[in-house]
Design goal:
InterPro entries: Bmt2/SAMTOR (IPR021867), SAM-dependent_MTases_sf (IPR029063). GO terms for molecular function: methyltransferase activity. By secondary structure, the chain is α/β, with parallel strands linked by helices. It is built from four helices and twelve strands. It has a single domain, classed as Rossmann fold (3-Layer(aba) Sandwich). Helices cover about 20% and strands about 25% of the residues. The strands form three sheets. The protein has an eight-stranded mixed beta sheet with strand order 3-2-1-6-7-9-8-12. Strands 4-5 form a two-stranded parallel ribbon. The C terminus is likely disordered.
Length: about 250
């Protein structure tokens, strides 16, 4: 991924506080629909307009990224080496919106670029194995290949590599978008503890899960030898493909 410029161009979608900005090896663009800090650009990623890729040298592309205007309404395709979805996809209320996000990530990545996905899940590592297998199939259908999967006790971590410039045709009719589901998609309004979705308040359990999720992000101290987070002593599981063993 490292180009002649020495910088890895990274797009952090739903960037809370632009955590990658402090790493010199990255040329980071953090975007959020409601930015929390000044260094994050305002951007509605679902409605982001994609343009033709830039036919420029690497240093010129780096200069282009450093001069982006706020808010961001459009970006050229094949612009980034890495796209990060950290605790992002589960916030969208429908599988199709998650699908659109992954499709845009594919179009924004250079060939062999990486899509890194972190999504919360406090269940034991096998409970949602079928869901993660479903995600793998759906995302790979866009022109990715998953090469890494890890399970923390409160989140899934997935790394996908872009292996083709174009996606396969007729993906929607094969219901690939619907495969990017989460358990909450199957809750009816009557099952919820609120009557107006716009006034939804997270439960204490969801707050705790979200807090643990942030503790397990890369910024938290981590002891790779012991397999536990030094900050929270949360166990860590790492699995290679094939994705979880079903028994």
């Amino acid at each position: 991924l490292l180009q002649a410029s020495g910088k890895i161009r990274l797009l952090d979608v739903g960037s809370c506080f632009n955590p990658f900005l402090k790493f010199e090896e990255f040329l980071t663009v953090g975007i959020d629909i409601v930015p929390a800090v000044e260094s994050v650009y305002k951007c509605d990623f679902l409605n982001l307009q994609l343009q033709q890729p830039l036919q420029l040298a690497q240093d010129a592309i780096d200069a282009f990224l450093k001069q982006l205007k706020n808010p961001i309404d459009s970006l050229p395709g094949e612009l980034f080496h890495v796209v990060v979805f950290s605790l992002l996809l589960s916030y969208f209320p429908s599988p199709y919106q998650r699908w659109i996000c992954c499709k845009k990530a594919h179009e924004l990545l250079v060939l062999n670029g990486l899509l890194l996905i972190i999504t919360p899940d406090s269940s034991h590592q096998n409970r949602h194995a079928m869901m993660m297998k479903s995600w793998k199939i759906a995302i790979e259908s866009l022109g990715f290949k998953r090469f890494k999967y890890s399970k923390f006790s409160h989140m899934h971590l997935m790394a996908f590599r872009k292996i083709s410039l174009k996606t396969t045709s007729d993906l929607v009719s094969r219901n690939y978008p619907g495969m990017l589901y989460i358990p909450q998609d199957f809750h009816s309004v009557e099952d919820e503890e609120y009557s107006n979705p716009s006034c939804y308040v997270r439960s204490d359990i969801e707050d705790e899960q979200l807090a643990y999720g942030f503790m397990e992000l890369p910024d938290a101290p981590y002891d790779s030898d012991s397999g536990e987070s030094q900050a929270s002593s949360i166990p860590f599981y790492e699995l290679e493909d094939p994705i979880l063993l079903l028994s």
